[in-house]
Amino acid sequence: QVQLVESGGGLVQAGASLRLSCSASGRSFYYLGMAWFRQGLGKEREFVAGIARRHEVIQYSDSVKGRFTISRDDGKNTLYLQMNSLKPEDTAVYYCAADDPGNIWYVPLSASPYDYWGQGTQVTVSS
């Protein structure tokens, strides 16, 4: 069983930056494929960014490419999402997700392959 706990959300103005963190426990982080999803009010959950095991593959949604950076520190069992140039449309609850065991060469873009989810952290961007 993997436990995921997100942190770092908050209320910021457009153009600001935030860094989200996801701390994992219960399983060797090295074996997990990790991703960030988000869900805005009244919207479906959508893929934001993902990183495969051993950092071999990284994927971003078109809406965040060039503004967000996903990274992982296997020694600290932590996943990060650096969010720059935030826009009001980035407002959502952000979820950390783990695929166990993760693939080395592939990042799933849909929610169903992910086995574990965090409770989410709210990000609100005002205009």
Plain-language structure description:
This protein has strands at 3-7, 10-13, 18-25, 33-39, 46-51, 58-60, 68-73, 78-83, 92-99, 116-117, 121-126. It is mainly β. Strands 2, 4, 5, 6, 9, 10 and 11 form a seven-stranded mixed sheet that branches. It has a four-stranded antiparallel sheet with strand order 1-3-8-7, with no helix packed on it. Strand 7 and strand 8 (78-83) form a beta hairpin.
Instruction: Compute the CA-based radius of gyration.
Output: 13 Å
Rough outline:
globular
What is the tally of helical segments?
A: 0
Overall mean confidence score, pLDDT: 96
Run of helices and strands: EEEEEEEEEEE
What structural category characterises the helix and strand content?
Answer: mainly beta
Percent range for helical residues?
Answer: under 10%
> Which stretches of 5+ consecutive residues score pLDDT under 50?
none
Q: What fraction of residues sit in β-strands? A: over 45%
Number of strands: 11
Largest sheet: 7 strands, mixed
Instruction: Report, as a whole number of angstroms, the end-to-end distance.
Output: 40 Å
